[in-house]
Amino acid sequence: MTVRVVLDAMGGDHAPRVPVEGALWALREIPELHVILVGQEERIRAELARHSPKGLSFSIVHASQVVEMHERTIAVKTKRDSSMGVGMRLVRSGEAEAFVSMGNTGAVMAAALFHLGRIPGIDRPALATVYPTAHRPCLLLDIGANTDPQPWHLLQFAIMGVVYAERVLGWPNPRVGILSNGEEPGKGSIRVQEAYRLLQESGLNFIGNVEGKDLSRGLAEVVVTDGFTGNVVIKHLEGTVSFLARFLKAQLTDGALDRLGLALALPGLILAAPGLLCLLPSLRRVFQQLDYREYGGAPLLGVNGVVVIGHGRSDAKAVKNAIRMAVRAVREGMLERIREGLESIPPARSPHGASVEGARIQGQRQSC
Description:
By secondary structure, the chain is an alpha/beta fold. The protein has 13 helices and eleven strands.
């Protein structure tokens, strides 16, 4: 089965060079993939001319306008012929199964809502990412789509996260936590405290608050928070990983020799060489697991289509892996599984809407 993925060739800090390069890389690794490059055709073809795309399955759809990284989300409506708008319409019409962009996160979300709409029962979509922990990774959401959600939105995020974790990632009965500044029930903002109460009454496998220092301990498989906090957490992790990589490299290559001198250090390095050689692959695997480029992007859960959003500063490797994530989501029926799961777990709405009884029933069913 061919999976058709729309790639916003104009999205990101280094477009169209990086998106085109990442698309060609993905095409060489994923036989059943067809990439639809959407954007300014002349610029896309100029980038393609720098490579050897012969024999690869791709097409180009022209879009005359670009939603820039600094623009407000209203640009999605004013720029009707933007690469985001044209790409989303291809997904809506069934000409593609997924959409990938490294562009402005808010604009991509707005375009998805405007052209694809929400899954019934969801008020706001959420960006989710797999967060590395000491044991099995956890799913952290939201990481940037909603900076100021209401408590019932956090409950909806939890329900979508549970469905995604169970039905796509294969994690049975995932534990749910809410990110807070203390583990006690009364800690956190008013929003967090109210969301705590809703989660407690939902019937989900809710374990309570999760502190920042405990996030990487793997206390919960699904952790919910607002998009502002989630975005800070993810970028702090990325910065820390980058710092540790540079720090270790400096210590291994410069520090010891500067302090001890080459003559003194050399015998010890020779004796330690077998151990260091064994350690280096392990360190490489650790940093690989922590590298955001390995994940490529974050799925936008709650919209009526498969949408993956990556960092604006993404390189070709990140673009390739974002496309791979989209292909996997299509293969595994992510959208259908979430729809089915939400039908069996009617999500909470605003205080004037439906109750959370459906979620409570689901929790009872899981405990049977």
